[in-house]
Amino acid sequence: MPNERKRVLILGGTLEARHLAGRLAADGRYDFITSFAGRTKERSLPAGEVRIGGFGGADGLRAFIESDRIDLVADAAHPFAAQISGNAAAAAAAAGIPCVRLERPAWEPRDGDNWKPVSGIDAAARAIPAGAAALVTVGRQEIGAFFARTDIRIVARMIEPPAMEAPPHAELVLARPPFSLDDERALIAGKDIDILVSKNSGGRSTVNKLLAAREQGLPVIMIERPAKPAALSASCVEQLVSLIDGAFG
Ligand code: NAP
Predict the structure, then answer these.
(1) Are 133 and 215 in a shared domain?
(2) C-alpha 201 to ligand 1 mean position (Å)
């Protein structure tokens, strides 16, 4: 008997993508595969089929959609992974299938926060005052812009080490989220940090650095999200499942 279930491609790299895979596996109504860029080694794989590595641009993704008989793309990529989201929208349109996105809500400043919004990595690196001790939490791919600032002290927290060697004025702290408020208080106090650099990734697993910064009156250089093409979007996994159901009405 032929497999009648619709096949969903989940673009992963986030906790929500993992939860979506778990949700679809438990639900059983869809066939699905999760794709990772392969930026970090996954500690444990999500439920269901997994593939790792780029597709080769929007054309490569379209070819994958067709060869793997994908019926819908569920883009649950990181808020800063704008390239893959753009490719997903273009490839799905070209293949004539729906693309729905999970857009994790951005963090908003609260009373007591001292955020300096900046539009990208280079602007963030330039915004750190000379002589400061900066906790930089932007990941490993773009840390070079900060390493180039030899007039500051850097504590760079990331999951895995960067491709380049850390210079003498930078210290790596290798750790995987989630981080508790106590973890963040201890890191900021223990390393004598006086400014925090963060992407506005949103979500709970790394929000405690912002609470600790607020408590300690630290300024935060907050990198705003890159633009993504318009898409039918949900803000949580359950809403995304509703969008997937709706697409197959
Ligand atoms: P990106 O700039 O959107 O994507 C660059 C290329 O990586 C894509 O064109 C694609 O290659 C490949 N790619 C990305 N996500 C993929 C996926 N789920 N499956 C297969 N291929 C994928 O994303 P990025 O370079 O990974 O990261 C950009 C920003 O997002 C960085 O600031 C990073 O810190 C942040 N971020 C990313 C992830 C993640 O898992 N990707 C997780 C946390 C944070 P092809 O064109 O060859 O298909």
Answers:
(1) yes
(2) 14
User: Does the model's pTM come out above 0.85?
Assistant: yes
Q: What is the pLDDT along the chain (249 residues), one digit of tens a residue?
A: 455 899 999 999 999 999 999 999 999 999 999 999 998 877 789 999 999 999 999 999 999 999 999 999 999 999 999 999 999 999 999 999 999 999 999 999 999 999 999 999 999 999 999 999 999 999 999 999 999 999 999 999 999 999 999 999 999 999 999 999 999 999 999 999 999 999 999 999 999 999 999 999 999 999 999 999 999 999 999 999 999 999 998
- Does the beta carbon of 40 lie inside 6 Å of ligand 1? no
Residue 74, domain extent:
7-105+228-247
- Ligand 1, atom 40, lies closest to the CA of 13
**Residue nearest atom 15 in ligand 1 by C-alpha distance:** 37
Q: Which whole-number Å values give the CA distances from 181 to 16, 69, 134, in the listed order?
A: 21, 44, 18
Cβ–ligand 1 contact at 172 (below 6 Å)? no
> Which residues touch 106 (CB under 8 Å, ≥6 apart)?
79, 200, 202, 225
235 and 173 co-located in one domain: no
